[in-house]
């Protein structure tokens, strides 16, 4: 019998409002009964930060840790050193950058995620964020809710998506879905930068053109969407210097990971007008501190901010998919078959699977 530690956000009353809200401590991905029926102990908590957190207390003798990117239990090198019995970390969702993968490899701890489980959800959120920013929806909505009526105040910073050049950094599952959904808007051109090209027929059907360097792509785009994983070479990628290579007044949308962008540099670019807008739902760390500059940053018109908490990949439809995928991974592990879907494996047996490097598999 092993201990399974499940780290999820707490939902309180919301869990009572909606029983389909599986991804919270109250509903435990719907897997408590099943885990116990397999003879294992389940400990669930949302208390994950600080030295005396439940996560720190229970990781010491946990065999399995399950967490999500929405309320990530950061499985650092220090925590792995304490976790003498830990064999497998499962991400209920996509993106396992909250685990120190090198430290996991040194100990032979496997890391898996539910690849594909929420890619459609994120792609929809990206398209929504692009529309919200380009059309300047947020200030317009805030204005009417506050009883106001000032059309010009909104119109002076509002545009069409039609006719704009859009580029994606990463053309994996999400990147492709974003472009598919944007095509009917009549955008002028769709570009992508990725170190893996798409097959020519897929590229043609999508109507996308590959650009050889990131800088070259950024210089042409009115709208940029980031859809690559966070790893050593994407951490802090969008800093002051790279943002200066973008077209002046472009919109930037990041639903990949907060740490891909340098927070102060983004806020500064919005203030200076180098960026017209920034939106997305990912922050570093999560939950974001009250003082995080992305909570309050604005452009010179007092607009241009379309941030939300990390919600894009955790709508109710997505929760069903990542809960089921998590159970399937655990089933393979508990049964000893270890016959995982190859695309779910990040690291195993002390080595990186190709996905850890952001390869599409
Ligand atoms: P994917 O593995 O299907 O595609 C990732 C693509 O990024 C691959 O084509 C890869 O070659 C490319 N890539 C890697 N490094 C790159 C670099 N330095 N420059 C350009 N391209 C690079 O992954 P998927 O499913 O599309 O997800 C992408 C990321 O989105 C995840 O790693 C995760 O961080 C984030 N995500 C966010 C969610 C949310 O709720 N906001 C939910 C799901 C994923």
Structure description:
The chain is α/β, with parallel strands linked by helices. It is built from 14 helices and 14 strands. The protein has a seven-stranded mixed β-sheet. A seven-stranded parallel β-sheet has the order 8-7-6-9-10-11-12. Helix 6 crosses helix 9. The longest helix is centred in the C-terminal third of the chain and has 20 residues, at about 315-335. 1,4-dihydronicotinamide adenine dinucleotide (NAI) binds near residues 95, 195 and 313.
What is the structure about, briefly put?
With 361 residues, this protein is α/β, with parallel strands linked by helices.
Report helical residue fraction: 25-40%
How are strands sequenced across the largest beta sheet?
2-1-3-4-5-13-14
Shape: globular
Major sheet, described briefly?
7 strands, mixed
State the end-to-end CA separation: 33 Å
Task: Tell me the radius of gyration.
Answer: 21 Å
Structural class by SSE content? alpha/beta
Q: Could you spell the SSE succession in H and E letters?
A: EHHEHEHEHEHHHEHEHEHEHEHEEHEE
Average pLDDT figure: 97
Number of strands: 14
Which kinds of small molecule does this entry bind, naming each only once? Answer: 1,4-dihydronicotinamide adenine dinucleotide
Spans where pLDDT lies below 50 across 5 or more residues? none
Beta content comes to 15-25%
H/I helix tally: 14
